[in-house]
Specification:
The protein is of the alpha+beta class. It has 11 helices and 14 strands. The chain is globular.
């Protein structure tokens, strides 16, 4: 491993000052579950890491604030999994976490780090996007808010500047919305997915009032399926409509092949899993 300097600021503001917008070898370090693997593999050679473990405790807290959930970016995934506030405001997140990586990773990895890494195989982005999450970003020029779906710009790419950090994630309360998350792996249940689909539906009677359906892992980034959402909104769901929605999803996005499956295989997964996610949300997703 290449030697590097380690800074341990005690505030987020100090951490941002230590980040160099013109030097890609200076990086923030949160949980480090992905970054340290990249360093050990020689994919990334830092000159300096700026540890965030000593910054203000408020960035590690989870708070139920009226009709929304506020998640500090340095909250660990295990804290997110166990928090009563999360189970109350967004039970879909709680249900998702048990299959996200493993206990050792969840004890260390942070919410902000998982989002900032930009890995399309991560479970949280599609779930949070489907729930309508926004993020607060802090940098040298102050704060800005962003819809989470606008954070990701490509494969392992985000719109974050090199001297910006995610400070907080805000998630509207799930309330009575129906929600489901489907993750398909070719290995163990907690393995990286070949495809994941999150669906959040607002339903009145038998009619879907609005829908947010997000796919990831088979795509370059977590992506809302706009054609599917339009097709579902205002409709009473039946088998033919679900079949058309699955077909639309399979054709709407560019599929990326990898060791977990070919384009043809993942396209068929997309077709099947969108149908299943919508059906599961309608049948079971209202449960906590």
């Amino acid at each position: 491993m290449t030697p590097f300097d380690l800074a341990e600021p005690t505030s987020l503001a100090e951490a941002i000052k230590l980040l160099d917008p013109d030097d890609a070898t200076v990086r923030p370090l949160a949980g480090g579950t992905a970054l340290m693997l990249m360093i050990k593999a020689g994919v990334f050679r830092p000159s300096k890491l700026v540890s965030l473990r000593l910054v203000e405790p408020k960035y590690s807290r989870i708070v139920g604030d009226g009709d929304r959930l506020r998640i500090g970016a340095l909250s660990t995934l295990s804290l997110l999994e166990r928090a009563v506030e999360v189970r109350t405001h967004a039970p879909l997140i709680t249900r998702t976490l048990s299959r996200l990586a493993n206990v050792r990773v969840r004890n260390v990895a942070t919410v902000g780090g998982a989002l900032a890494h930009g890995d399309p195989h991560m479970d949280l982005p599609p779930v949070l996007i489907a729930l309508g999450a926004t993020i607060t970003i802090v940098g040298a020029n102050g704060e800005r808010s962003l819809r989470l779906e606008d954070l990701f710009s490509g494969y392992y790419e985000t719109v974050l500047e090199k001297n910006e950090l995610i400070a907080e994630v805000q998630v509207p309360s799930q309330g009575g919305k129906r929600a489901a998350y489907i993750k398909v792996t070719t290995g163990s249940a907690d393995d990286w997915p070949a495809l994941c689909v999150a669906a959040v539906l607002e339903v009145q009677g038998k009619v879907v009032q609005s829908a947010r359906v997000v796919a990831s892992a088979a795509t370059a980034k977590a992506t809302r399926l706009a054609a599917v959402e339009t097709m579902l909104a205002g409709a009473a769901i039946d088998a033919p409509l679900l079949a058309r929605a699955g077909d639309a999803a399979a054709e709407e996005v560019e599929i990326l092949p990898d060791i977990r499956g070919s384009v043809a295989y993942k396209r068929e997964l997309m077709r099947v899993c969108v149908r299943r996610a919508v059906r599961q949300a309608l049948e079971e997703g209202g449960r906590n």
